[in-house]
Amino acid sequence: MTGMAASAEPLKIVGFGDSLMAGYQLGPTDSFAAKLEAALKAKGLDVTVANAGVSGDTTAAGLSRIDWSVPEGTQLVVLELGANDMLRGLPPEQTRKNLDTMLKRLTDRGIAVVLAGMMAAPNLGPAYGNSYNSIFPDLAKKYNVPLVPFFLDGVVGVSGLQIDDGIHPNPKGVDVMVERSLPVIERAVRALSSS
């Protein structure tokens, strides 16, 4: 049995997102995608995690490239977009619509998805916050996909975990993001591996 598992193809994962996925100003081995791959392998899972993060991407930009950025043969996508929409104050309805369309396209292709959630900055006000913050749990429920409730959980506002801009995670911050999201992503990978 072990011989069979070893000769099987690794499970192909794509980390699809913005600078938080891409690893803004970090070395290639310090990106979320790279550290996630290492963490899953440390759990004994045979995976590859391709980094399809593009710094500055909004959900609209992600939607325009999702079909060709997620190649055939991909089995799982970690979908992480929406932070730049929020930082630019774009209407939450538009963010919701774009993410909904991406989820539909991926599930139509038979690709499993883990949705990485984001939270609105408090300075945008409660109305914007409520409208924006509900997007991710609502869509995870609609498509029955696992949700990482807040991708930057444990990193936002914690000193020593960001690069100089005070927004993007440094390598230690990425470690926290991987650690917090790993249980959800690992469950999804194991479910795919056993099916």
From TrEMBL:
The family database entries (Pfam families) matched by this protein are listed as: Lipase_GDSL_2
Gene3D superfamilies per record:
SGNH hydrolase (3.40.50.1110)
One GO MF term, please?
phosphatidylcholine lysophospholipase activity
Q: Which InterPro entries match?
A: Ester_Hydrolysis_Enzymes, SGNH_hydro, SGNH_hydro_sf
Q: Could you tell me which residue ranges the SGNH hydrolase-type esterase domain spans? A: 16-174
- The protein depicted here goes by the name Arylesterase
- The species this protein was found in: Tianweitania populi
